Amino acid sequence: MALISDALLDAITQPDRRVIITCPPRESKSTTVAVVGTLFALMNNPDERVILASYADSLAWEHSRTARALVEEHHDVLGFRLSADKTSAARWAVAGRSGGLLAVGITSGVTGFGAGLLLVDDATKNAAEADSAASRARVLAEFRATLMTRVHPGGSVVIIGTRWHETDLIGSLLREEPDRWRHINIPAVAEAGIPDALGRLPGAAMTSALGRTRDQFTDLRRSVGERAWYALFQGVPSSPEGGLIKQDWLDHWRLPAAPPHPVRTVVAVDPADSGERDAAGIIAATLAANGRVHLIADATGKMTSDEWARAAIALALDVGASEIHVEAFASGATYVRIVREALARSEGARHISVRGWPPKGHPRKGDAVTRSAAMLQALETGRCVIAGNLPDFETAAVRWQAGQHQPDCIAAAVIAFDVLAPVAGGQTTIVGPWHRPQSQPPEWMTRRILNGRTSPDQLTTAAPHRSYLSRSVKPSGYDPLAYPRPTLRPVLT
Questions:
Q1: Is there a contact between 385 and 253 (Cβ–Cβ < 8 Å)?
Q2: How large is the average pLDDT for residues 379-389?
Q3: Is the pLDDT of residue 100 over 70?
Q4: How far apart are CA 254 and CA 22, in angstroms?
């Protein structure tokens, strides 16, 4: 905690500091920043105004109550008392001075209160909220438009939180203002590819406030799962090697271009749900003669229903696909109709067929990870590869974690793979018992039939075959077929 304390002290005593802190849970970072930071700022300057924001009013008020209780109990040591007329958890003030604390939820709004120090403790509640694009956008907008506009000139900002998503509040700030923000990340166990403010060698465990050892951290990793481990304990939203899909897989099997003359080329679509410029996954893939599936193009983007339908058709024409397969788990008939109507308005696209996926009679099985299992295995073993470079697809692939919403481009790739994979495996081999000597197959297995049909000559030269048709009815009823009746039909020999 010494590193965090030093950074906090610097932010309180020096102007215009911007600090982001990520650290494992239960290691006193919230108490240090939200409670001790508030008290030290007011000790340093009783006229200082502090805003403490969190994902909800309740958490901010909890920290405020703790700080307030310490002031009431140790005011002689701290050097200031609470004002008698402002003592609520939401807002309390220093007696006889202009300083005090305002504790709010990050989306609750701040009116009539400016601050020289802004402390943000966990802007996002959990993984589910972080996975919501709308929630992430709302938090970022409130931080910029509401909280940052309340910071006085020369004021400092300190943020602590969990990295649940690449584009969460912390991720957005580090990406857009990398030179403005100082990021202090203390992973539970040092790991190559993960920033470590302590500069440890890979494998070294942090000195835990709870006394956890490296073995205990390892056991905890197994218990919480990979996504929670990296977000909560390592300070990154995903493993540097990738989540469910590893970057090494994609790079190891990558081809410079797809082989020519594919057996089959398809475009797969995971439609935008609302039709109001949500993300729609659109992926093109081919099947080679050797049974390998190649992902060759990605047209994923935020589009309306008409836009993604036209984008899928344009991609099909571009790559020479004759099939478009649309995810049909929900509103499948509507999605297929949208694409067919767009096809009717397109020139040179009448040869393209549109189908819902999966076919009728094949209901959805399991969650997104379960449905993706076959493609994940194929990406690992090289039966499904990337031809060329698909940067947006690859970024989404390696960041995808179990428990997260499946990226739309990945969902579309799964459809393309599932469409092509059964064809890739559709080879038949006839074998006999191992102890019998090998011999040529009988003539009836090797005869050729004209274009898949029996020829007229074969019909006229076929020997007649006698068979009998009979049935039984109740004894009291009349049955015209109660006796055997010979019939003739030609049988090929």
A1: yes
A2: 94
A3: yes
A4: 35
Q: Are strands 384-386 and 353-357 parallel, antiparallel or unpaired?
A: unpaired
> In CATH, what class is 2-185?
alpha beta
Q: What is the pLDDT of residues 430-457, one digit of tens each?
A: 445 555 666 666 666 566 555 555 555 5
User: What letter represents residue 382's amino acid?
Assistant: G
CA–CA gap between residue 269 and residue 280 (Å, rounded): 7
How open is the CA angle 114-119-120, to the nearest 5 degrees?
115
pLDDT of 276 reads: 54
pTM, entire model: 0.63
* pLDDT at 312 exceeding the cut of 60: yes
Cα gap 402→369, rounded to integer Å: 7
- Cα three-residue angle 130-123-59, rounded to 5 degrees: 120
Q: The tokens 């994923």 sit on which residue?
A: 300
Residue ranges of domains in the chain: 2-185, 247-424, 443-491
Can you name the CATH fold of 247-424?
Nucleotidyltransferase; domain 5 (3.30.420)
CA 114 to chain centre: 38
Q: Kindly report the CA angle at 342 between 336 and 348, in degrees rounded to 5?
A: 115
Strand partners, 92: 87, 101
Predicted local distance difference test score (pLDDT) of residue 305: 84
Which pLDDT does position 180 carry in this prediction? 95
**For 3-12, what is each residue's pLDDT tens digit?**
999 999 999 9
Sheet holding 91-94, edge to edge: 82-87, 91-94, 100-105, 49-54, 115-121, 151-160, 18-22, 182-185
Residue 426 and residue 423: Cα distance in Å, rounded? Answer: 5
Using only C-alpha atoms, the chain has a radius of gyration, in whole angstroms, of 34
